[in-house]
Structure formats: structure tokens, C-alpha cells
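Let's practice the habit of predicting before peeking. Look at the sequence and jot down your guess about where helices and strands might fall. Then scroll down.
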Amino acid sequence: MAFELSLQDGALHWYRQLPRKTKRTWKLLSDAFIKYYCSRFTQSAKARYYSAQREDKEHVCDYLNRLNGYARNAGVQFENGGREANDHVDHFLDTCDDRGLEERLCHARVKDIHDLEEMINDIVRSRERKTAR
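Done guessing? Here is the structure:
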């Protein structure tokens, strides 16, 4: 808990989206940190953002959080609407590798990343309910 209090901005967003299991041990936490912040150390923040792709078996919400972190580090102004926010949403849809999600959202008017996040959560919950039946 004290570790979380030392974080701010993008690092705090990154930490909060981690699974509880990862936060329990320093080894898992440090491995996650290195993977997220150092895996593409030679790339600039903008290059890391624009080359981001969803990893195999990565949950779509986890990918959105990771992409948002990359965007913050690259200085992309996506949180308050506007052109960069629209471009960020398009970039997410192009790179999330979920054609069903892309088809469901392509006609939606998404003004910012927070609206997109809510829509994705609704779609994921709907999918989970259907598979639970």
C-alpha cells in the first residue's frame, strides 16, 4: 500500500490496473514493471505508442490501459476529447485485434477514451453473460 502512495500520473494508472496477485509479491510486481516500462527501452515514447499491439491472451481492457499509459508517456492529449482523443480511439481499435469489438464500435460516436472504456466494459460483460449460459 505504501508503494502505491509513492506513485503518480501514468505510473499510478499502471499500478491500479494490475491484477491483485501481481501486487502481492515484489518479484511479480518488479517483473510487471520491467515488462511494461523497460521492454522497449530503446524506443522513444512516441514510437512505443504507435507500434503498440495487443499481446496474445491480453485482455482488451488491459491493452487499453497499457495503450493509455503509452499515450500519456508520449504526450498524447487523449483524456479531454478533441482530435487527438479521436485518433487515440481509432489507434486502439486498429491495434486491439478484436474485429467483433471493432465492428460493434465503428459506428458509435465516441467523444473520449472514457466513453470508449465504458462501452468496452459493457460489451465484455455482455460476452461473459452469453458464454456463462
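How did you do? Residues 113-132 form the longest helix (20 residues).
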